[in-house]
Structure formats: C-alpha cells, structure tokens
Amino acid sequence: MIYDNLKIFSQNVRKNALIVNTILETHFHFDIILIQEPLWSIIRSIPSSSCSVEEILVGAPNHPNWLSFARPPTIQSDSPRIMAYINIHLSFFRFPFIET
Does residue 97 lie in a domain region? Predict the structure, then answer.
C-alpha cells in the first residue's frame, strides 16, 4: 500500500513533559512525530509477582491518539534518546515494533 503526503514533525523537547503533551494534543494533523530527548521517568510503582518489593514502571508520556515507539532501555539509567509517535489513523499498517 502506498501512502501519499506523509507529514512528519520532529522536535527536541529537552525532557519536558509539558512540551510533549502539548505537541501530542495540538499536532494531530501530522502522521509521525519524532521526539528528541523524551522525558523517561517513573510512572508508578506496580506490585511484583516474584518478590514482596514493588517494581517501578518507567516510561514516556502517552496519548490515546498516538502509538508510541521507543527502544527499550537495557539498564534503568539508559533511557531512549528518541521516540516516535505515529498517528492512530496509520494503525492499519500494523507496525512490527514494540509499543511502549
């Protein structure tokens, strides 16, 4: 399938969640948004099935109208340096990446 006029937006947000959320809310006319230096922080603590200590869930801001993709961190301090947000209307392409 060929998709004409693919619109891509790229922005360095310097780990600022407010900028990321604003972009995701206002730039819905783009097909792909590339975020440099995304905020990768603690979302919440989740109960562990293997031990009594809760595990920490880390990630980046998400939005219901966007599919988010990033390289999974290998260690806790190794956060992704770029994220891709793909507009939900392109989900029929069935991207083979791991959704975050």
Answer: no
